[in-house]
Amino acid sequence: MRKIKKGDEVIVITGKDKGKRGTVARLVDDDRVVVENVNMAKRHVKPNPQRGEAGGILDKEMPLHVSNVALFNSQTDKADRVGFKVLEDGRKVRVFKSTKEVVDS
Q: Which of 9, 15, 22, 86 has the most CB atoms lying inside 10 A of its own CB?
C-alpha cells in the first residue's frame, strides 16, 4: 500500500513550487508523482499537419519525487505525515500521524 495515491490532495514541501497545493494526477514510478498545475515546464512542439497539431510552446506538468510532497490535512490546514493502521475488520488504512484520523474511508 502506498502513502500517496492518485486523487490525493498534496502540498509541495520543497523546491521551486514550495507551498503549492494540488491533486495527484498520476503515479509515474514507485517514487514519482505528477501533481496538477505544479512543476510546470515549457515544451516546444513542432507543428504536425497530419495530426492537426498547431505547434508552439506548451506548458507541461513534470513529475516530482514523493519525498518532496506531503499529504494535505484539511482539518489542520497543514502538510501531514502518513502512517498505516489495521482496523478491527482486518482492513489496512492510511492515517494522519498528527491526528490519528483515517485518510480514506
A: 22
User: How many whole angstroms separate alpha carbon 38 and alpha carbon 31?
Assistant: 17
The phi and psi torsions of 94 (rounded to 5 degrees) equal: -90, 140
CB 16 within 8 A of CB 38: no
Q: Determine the average pLDDT of the residues in 9-19.
A: 96
The architecture CATH gives domain 9-76: Roll (2.30)
Beta strands in the chain, from DSSP E residues, in sequence order: 9-12, 21-27, 32-35, 40-45, 56-61, 64-65, 69-73, 78-80, 82-86, 92-96
pLDDT, residue 76, reads 92
CA dihedral 71, 74, 80, 85 (to 10 degrees): -80
Residue 1: predicted pLDDT = 80
Q: Whole-prediction pTM value?
A: 0.84
